[in-house]
């Protein structure tokens, strides 16, 4: 069924600045077709007045009117031949999307330990053997066990912590489970805390 006016927005031409809506875009498209510069100028000023009324909350912002005229130039594809009250030559920079930010530690293969544990494991993998490294290994291993209890709904496995620690340090840190002693952690506390948060 093809009824005029009942087409989906997904089937229509994509808007350059969707925040102004399709009606403002239609007005700008119409202004471009006007035969005289005076008519185009008057129409453009009317469109700016409408755009201004749509953004009253931004009126106190620095360069607000410049931004509206930049938007008009962008939405017209720079085809609207008028005397702009502002220099709109830099308007294209508004339309540029910023480069996506890289998510820190995308290479972390075991997400549930978090970025701090991952950073500490990187540090451990570069540390020289000694008392300072042993103390940090103990702290990191116990934190990993706590994290594992939280993510595994109250259960943990020392062998898994040792395996994950070795993996995150590229095999540099190897815990001997026959001699290494984890701190006593009451696993019920983690389960109870989770239940309290849910209720």
Structure description:
This protein is mainly alpha-helical. The chain has helices at residues 21-33, 37-54, 64-75, 92-95, 114-126, 131-151, 158-168, 187-198. The relative contact order is 0.08. Helices cover 52% and strands 0% of the residues. The chain has two domains: 18-95, no CATH class; 113-189, no CATH class. The two termini are 50 Å apart. The chain contains eight helices and no strands. Helix 1 runs antiparallel to helix 2 (37-54) and helix 5 packs antiparallel against helix 6 (131-151). The mean pLDDT is 82. It comes from Prevotella amnii DNF00058.
Features:
199 residues, 2 domains, 52% helix, elongated, DUF4290, mainly alpha
Question: In this structure, how is the largest beta sheet organized?
Answer: none
Count of individual beta strands: 0
Residue windows where pLDDT falls under 50 for at least 5 positions = none
Shape: elongated
Using only CA atoms, what is the Rg?
31 Å
In terms of DSSP E residues, the strand content is: under 5%
> What number of structural domains do the residues give?
2
Helix content: 40-55%
Distance between the termini: 50 Å
Total of DSSP H or I helical runs spanning 4+ residues:
8
Give the SSE string. HHHHHHHH
Structural class of the helix and strand makeup? mainly alpha
The chain-level mean pLDDT equals: 82
Protein name: Methionyl-tRNA formyltransferase
InterPro entries: DUF4290 (IPR025632)
Organism: Prevotella amnii DNF00058
């Amino acid at each position: 069924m093809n009824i005029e006016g009942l087409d989906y927005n997904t089937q229509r031409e994509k808007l350059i600045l969707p925040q102004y809506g399709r009606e403002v875009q239609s007005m700008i498209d119409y202004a471009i077709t006007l035969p005289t510069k005076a008519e185009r100028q008057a129409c453009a000023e009317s469109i700016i007045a409408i755009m201004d009324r749509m953004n009253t909350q931004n009126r106190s912002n620095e360069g607000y009117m410049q931004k509206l005229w930049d938007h008009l130039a962008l939405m017209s594809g720079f085809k609207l031949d008028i005397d702009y009250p502002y220099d709109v030559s830099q308007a294209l920079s508004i339309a540029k999307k910023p480069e996506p930010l890289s998510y820190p530690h995308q290479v972390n293969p075991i997400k549930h330990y978090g970025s701090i544990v991952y950073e500490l494991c990187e540090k451990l993998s570069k540390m020289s053997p000694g008392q300072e490294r042993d103390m940090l290994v103990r702290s990191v291993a116990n934190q990993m066990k706590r994290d594992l209890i939280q993510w595994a709904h109250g259960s943990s496995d020392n062998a898994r912590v040792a395996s994950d620690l070795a993996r995150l340090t590229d095999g540099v840190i190897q815990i001997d489970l026959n001699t290494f002693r984890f701190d006593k952690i009451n696993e019920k506390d983690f389960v109870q805390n989770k239940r309290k948060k849910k209720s």
